[in-house]
Amino acid sequence: MNVLSYVLVYRKFFLVVFTLLVLLPLPIILRTKEAECAYTLFVIATFWLTEALPLSVTALLPGLMFPLFGIMPSKKVASAYFKDFHLLLIGVICLATSIEKWNLHKRIALRMVMTVGVNPAWLTLGFMSSTAFLSMWLSNTSTAAMVMPIVEAVAQQIISAEAEVEATQMTYFSGSTNHGLEIDESVNGHETNERKEKTVPVPGYSNDAGKNSSNMELEKNSGTGAKYRTKKDHMMCKLMCLCVAYSSTIGGLTTITGTSTNLIFAEHFNMRYPECRCINFGSWFMLSFPAAIIILFLSWIWLQWLFLGFNFKEMFKCGKTKTVKQKACAEVIKQEYQKLGPIRYQEIVTLVLFIVMALLWFSRDPGFVPGWSALFSKYPGFATDSTVALLIGLLFFLIPAKRLTKTTPTGEIVAFDYSPLITWKEFQSFMPWDIAILVGGGFALADGCEESGLSKWIGNKLSPLGSLPVWLIILISSLLVTSLTEVASNPATITLLLPILSSLADAIQVNPLYILIPSTLCTSFAFLLPVANPPNAIVFSYGHLKVIDMVKAGLGVNIVGVAVVMLGMSTWIVTLFDLSTYPSWAPPITNATMP
Fold first, then answer.
1. On the chain, which terminus has fewer CB atoms closer than 10 Å, C or N?
2. Which ranges does the record mark as transmembrane (predicted)?
């Protein structure tokens, strides 16, 4: 028994050692770069799944293992840890810092709750719909980063309102005095499970809230380290986080510009089959929009059942008489909104910058009309979403928020400086550096897979699929792409597989779109792990989720996604492109070559 207790205490240490030793024969026996990279991949995947090491620490392993195996030099691995994504994240976090500092997120959250109601089922559907719509035009990462502070605020407002209702009911029965609700603002949206809750004082920003009923609730759970009143509150927070992550990815499916994988597919297809001219903004929207709507709705049902239970009566209670508790919650939310007072100058400026950022992202290169990037035609592709994010982000450090004054020896109050919308200290407190390292590790791992030839080796294993029925080829390739994209970057996966799948389609004389469309769509189905794509990492950074939560939820959404894509390939997509025949714009069998 003592030995078992010893093992349990040091289980993470033993798991790390055991994983490294058990997988070690792979590079020792095979002695190839592919095997050495596979060893690194399996070790990192195991540590990410089990959290034997902190996720961001595990993400640093490519920087250690790739140079030792001779896969990539250290300088090249290090460059993978800071990409265009990180500049985009910095700009968006500047926006998020200002939104939360000046309480704009609370105003938006309270107004949304007052409009939609406090039923979690309808709230999550509303958030999923709005997030998916935004991600149709903006990057998935930007959308998730912008929506999550609002979602976090809504969840905390509902939890606090329910706490006030219960406190009021207890007060009524006990006869004690009720001091009213003070919304808890000590829960920082970007804290992780390893960090304790803390508040960062901001000049001109009151953080005294939460000292009464909400802090009392937190103190009750201080023994377990939890920050939720009940298990249902925790489940609701998990549900709302995953809804944002998954809907931002699902929405990106619907437009050519919605995600990088769609753009890569369009470029590859138009270059390989220039005579087709059938893939454009409109045709892609027609084939993907129905699929996205179905996946979004079924994912909502699945997540609702997984975290809050499968209760149709509760889920679809719309227009019915509200319970006393719901009415009381709505009244508390209304009172909290009134406490904010009229909208302030700082909130207006932050809102304007938010809208300008969104418009600049949308109009940069919409696809169906020339965007403002055409003004810089001499340098095509130089300006990206991160350029816009940095431009707006820098303005938050420049635009005045209020004057700083001092009293002279004569008693006169004079202004001597001004305070910008945000300061560097405030930005640092919000910037999730651990998530930046986490995503960088994913980029480094993807680069190592390409450099070592492991990605090419995996792709070449698809070649024997030509002897199978077409529907089975589509299913196998879709499942393989969905699995591969969980541990490799989406752009790397689609870039690797498109040439192989195109050659496969030409060789067996099947319309290339029959195989390429589902594979492209499934490349976006990276729902299982926090490191699978940036939106997953962003919502994971809020500290409500564990890896196993995302694995359970993501597995169901992956199955739904693949099933809907298969359904589409046999219904509306087939008729849209006439996929039943081998097209004249595709090369004849004599010119097709297998990789």
1. N
2. 12-30, 42-69, 81-99, 119-138, 239-265, 285-307, 343-362, 382-399, 470-501, 513-532, 553-577
Query: Please, are residues 144 and 535 in contact by the beta-carbon 8 Å criterion?
Result: yes
| 125 phi, psi to nearest 5 deg | -65, -40
Spatial distance between the Cα atoms of 510 and 505, rounded to a whole number of angstroms: 5
**Portion of the chain with pLDDT greater than 90, in percent:** 17
Q: For the ranges 179-183, 284-288, 322-326, 433-437, which has the lowest average pLDDT?
A: 179-183
Contact between 228 and 159 (Cβ < 8 Å): yes
Residues 582, 509 contacting (CB under 8 angstroms): yes
Q: Is the pLDDT of residue 419 over 80?
A: yes
Closest CA to 445 of 75, 72, 55: 72
Which structure tokens are listed for 453?
């030839």
- Residue 206, judged by CB atoms within 10 A of its CB (0-12, 13-18, 19+), counts as exposed
Do the Cβ atoms of 288 and 259 come closer than 8 Å?
no
Alpha-carbon gap, residue 272 to 526, rounded angstroms = 27
Six-digit token pair at 265? 């597919």
pLDDT at 290: 92
**pLDDT tops 90 at residue 95:** no
Rounded CA separation 458/480 (Å) = 10
Q: Which amino acid is at 76?
A: K
Contact 556, 514 (CB under 8 A): no
Taking alpha carbons only, the member of 326, 143, 150, 329 closest to residue 248 is 143
Tell me which residue has tokens 């009392």: 216
Mean pLDDT of 92-120: 79
Q: Which of 152, 149, 144, 154 is nearest to 89 (CA)?
A: 144
Determine the Cα–Cα distance for residues 51 and 435; give it in Å rounded to an integer. 15
Rounded to whole angstroms, what are the CA distances from 316 to 146, 313, 319? Answer: 28, 6, 9
Q: What are phi and psi of 400, to 5 degrees?
A: -65, 140
Tell me which of 149 and 456 has the higher pLDDT: 149
Distance CA 352, CA 348 (A): 6
For residue 420, list its beta bridge partners.
400
Q: How far is CA 133 from CA 249, 250, 386, in A?
A: 11, 10, 20
What is the tens place of the pLDDT at every residue in 496-527? 677 777 777 777 778 888 889 999 999 889 88
Alpha carbon distance 220, 224 (integer Å): 9
Confidence of residue 174 (pLDDT cuts 50, 70, 90): low
End-to-end CA distance of the chain: 57
3-state secondary structure at position 414? strand
- Does residue 314 surpass a pLDDT of 90? no
